[in-house]
């Protein structure tokens, strides 16, 4: 078996923690990723970071409300799930 990691990152305009968490939790599940754990932190006075530990690697979000954007990144060793995630994100 060949070791491969597929990486995707993108800046998005949404910075609301509850909207982001809900949206990406749904996309990860619909893509078929197995979520092992979830961790989040709300920064003061603003800002949010969330991390999904996946059986296939991880997904993270970092918001920058002062700049009205957030950074998302997915690393996966499963090309099929990775490609499905990107397809769902672009719908």
Biggest beta sheet summary: 5 strands, antiparallel
Per the CATH scheme, the topology name is S-adenosylmethionine decarboxylase
Radius of gyration: 13 Å
Distance between the termini: 32 Å
Mean pLDDT: 97
Number of domains: 1
Coarse structural class: alpha+beta
Reported CATH architecture: 4-Layer Sandwich
Indicate the proportion of strand residues. Answer: 35-45%
CATH superfamily: S-adenosylmethionine decarboxylase
CATH class descriptor name: Alpha Beta
Helix content: 25-40%
Number of helices: 2
Number of DSSP-assigned strands? 5
Strand order of the largest sheet: 1-5-4-3-2
Walk me through this protein's architecture:
The chain is of the alpha+beta class and 91 residues long. It has one domain (6-89): 4-Layer Sandwich (S-adenosylmethionine decarboxylase). 29% of the residues lie in helices and 42% in strands. The protein has two helices and five strands; from the N terminus they run E-H-E-E-E-E-H. The protein has helices at residues 17-31, 79-89, and strands spanning 6-12, 35-42, 48-54, 57-64, 69-76. Strands 1-5-4-3-2 form a five-stranded antiparallel sheet, covered by helices on one side. The chain is globular and about 45 Å long. The N and C termini lie far apart (32 Å). The mean pLDDT is 97.
């Amino acid at each position: 078996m060949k070791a491969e990691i597929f990486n995707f990152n993108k800046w998005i305009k949404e910075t609301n923690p509850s909207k982001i968490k809900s949206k990406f939790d749904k996309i990860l599940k619909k893509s078929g990723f197995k979520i092992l754990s979830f961790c989040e932190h709300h920064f003061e006075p603003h800002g949010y970071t969330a991390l999904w530990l996946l059986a296939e690697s991880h997904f993270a979000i970092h918001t920058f409300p002062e700049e009205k954007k957030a950074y998302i990144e997915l690393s996966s060793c499963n090309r099929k799930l990775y490609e499905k995630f990107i397809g769902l994100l672009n719908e």
